[in-house]
Every structure is written in structure tokens, then in C-alpha cells.
Prior knowledge:
alpha/beta; 13 strands; 18 helices
Amino acid sequence: MVTFDFIHELRNRCLISHVSNEEQLQDIIKNQSIAFYCGFDPTADSLHIGHLLLLITLKRLQKYGHKPIVLVGGGTSLIGDPSFKEKERLSDINNNVDKWTQKIIKQISFFLDFNCGMNSALILNNNIWLKKLDLLSFLRNIGKHFSINTMINRDSVKQRIIRTDQGISFTEFSYSLLQAYDFFILNKKYQVILQIGGSDQWGNISSGMHLINRLSQKDVYGLTIPLLVQSNGIKFGKTESGTIWLDAKKTSPYKFYQFWINIDDNSVYYFLKLFTFEELSIIELLEKENNINNQIIKDKLFLAKTITRLVHGKENLLAVERITEVLFSRKIHCITESDFQQLEQDGIPSITAYQIKDLQDALILCNFSKSRTQSKNLIQANAISVNTQKIINLNYIFSTNDKLFKKFTLLSKGKKHHSLICWKNF
């Protein structure tokens, strides 16, 4: 029997935006194991950190004895969820949905346990049943249970309808009914009684609860978690340079780690509650100690390491720590070729070079200086390093020994500015 008060735990971690029939759901979850689900549409070839909190919530529920079902929207992704979107999604989803689905399934599989008995995780694709659903049956058996008046008054839809430059298509408008049908199928075949999602999904989740009540006269439940914003109001998961992806080939583990290192100080303990499994009492103690000893950097490092290990695994975390050691402690011998490849991907600014005249020329190409005169001044000031070694020779010319793994040279200005030269053969 499950005896853990999971709803209370989520409340204390600020992880509930909406929840239906809270007391009843709380009693059920506390006293029995349930099946629950969360959906992810494969609208890109990777999930991003905007999805991370949902994945961790799935992991939390499974940890306390409940069965997670992940629904990949191979069918609904072809329609596109309009919830709080400014316009209809335009992409080449039709041609890529199968490939993207496989990649996302692989990512999700990293977070959950698929071999732990009754609460083993399960991944399904809604295209299995949606492709069998004919239009007349859908309109007659599903559509008749929904009021247009209610649907158009939902904030997620209303914001699109009132726009003069961008309305909403019937295709998008039907999305909520398809997601409701998903919930009905999962309840019927897998006894799923709870759907979780981001707070922008509350309207869609409510549709599912309504449909199941109409068709099966059963009570089911919905729970949403907040969409994340940092203390400065910027939507969590977005940066000036774009999305932070969970796929290491799209966002390297090093850049992923650096994202967490550079979050606003005021967000650290909030994110420790959201993204880690650390006891709340310990997080509260860390925050109190920080108010006395100003240990925010230490706690930010703990957050970054914990989340990087969770998403990318222990080996990639060790690689990140090696790279960090090289850049900030100047121990170049520790670094591996794959570490350099992370830096080349997105870790630090890099240039591709076939031939560089000398160090002065390289400083200009790397935007460390604007002229050869300024380059000389930097070298004379003892501010320039090649592969962490200080250079004082004004006429320094790169040698084969400077090309680590026959390809990479790390150029540094002071302690904080780095650039990678990636040598190419003619």
C-alpha cells in the first residue's frame, strides 16, 4: 500500500498550478497505487528543459509506487496544440514525426524505470488509435459532448480568437477533443485516473475529465504544474541564444551545465525544490546557511551537477567537470578529444582555421583584439595563453605541438575569455 502524501509534497515544492478534486485525489494517491499519464508531442527532434520538470514529476510519482504512462503524440502532433500559441505551428512535422518520435522515446526512457514490477513505466503512441478514428464516429460519439461556448471561452483559445492578425483553424480547435479522447482510451484500457501536464494544458485536461465522466460515468483527475519563469520574468528554458535542449548533440552537456551555473541567484533554492530529490528540510537549511555565510556559488554548483547528472549521466558530468577544470584551473592535460568536441559544438566561441599567420593574427580572428597593435599590447601585458600556457613572444607562431589531437588549440585572454581554434587541413 502507498502511504506517502504525494500531493502535500508537490504543494510544498511549489509544483501544483491546478488540481481537480484535490482532497479526493490526495486520499486515493496516499492509499493506493494508481496509473497516471503525461503526453509529449514530437514537434521537434528533442525535448528541452521546458519539459524537464514534467519528466522529473513522472519520476517522483513512480518513485512513490505509481505507474507512469508516457503518451507520445504521434497523432496529435500532426494537428498542433493551439494552447497559448500566438499562431499555428508551421513545420515539416509530417515528414519527420516517426523519426522524432523515436528520438523522444529514447530521451524519456532515460528518466523512468521500465523493469520494476507493477509500476513499471510504459510508453505508448496515440497514433495507434487516432489513425483508426473515422470522422463521422468522432463527431457523433465525441464531439457531441462538448460545448463550443465553453471551448471558445477558455483563455488558451480566446487569446487566438480575439487576434485580428491570427485566428485559429478548425484543425487546431479540434486538438482538445483529441487529447480528451486519449485520456478516455487510457482510462478504458490501462485504468489511468490522472493526467498531468504544464499549466497551459489545464483546458485540454479538463476536456478529458469531462469526456470520461460523460462516456463512462467515472471520476478521473487532472494536475498541472506551473510554467517556469525565472525571477526576472524570462520564460524558463529560453536564453538569448535559443532553447536549451536535452539532446547532447543539440545542446552539449557543458552548455547545459553552464545554463544552470548562470541562473539568477534568487532562483537557486526554488529550483532545488523543483528539480532535485533533495529533502525539503535540507534545501531550507541550505538557504538559511546561505543567508549567513553567502554560499550561493556552492549551492548553485550543487544544483548544476545534480541536474546535469540526471539528464546526461555520470560520465557526461565528469566530462563537464574536466572541461571546467581546464578553463578555470588551467589543467590542459586532463581534457579529452570528446571534451574539445563539446567546446567546438557550443561550449565557447570557436573559429575554423586552415592557416593562421601568427598569434597576433589569431587574436584578431577570435575577436580578442581589433588590430595587430592591440594584439601586441595584450601579449606584452601577459594576458594571452595558448593551451593554458602564457605566451610572451610577440612573434609567436603556432606549431604542431599546439594542435592538440592534431586539431584543437585553446586560446585564452585572461581567466574568463576563451576561444577554440579548430584546425582544418586543406
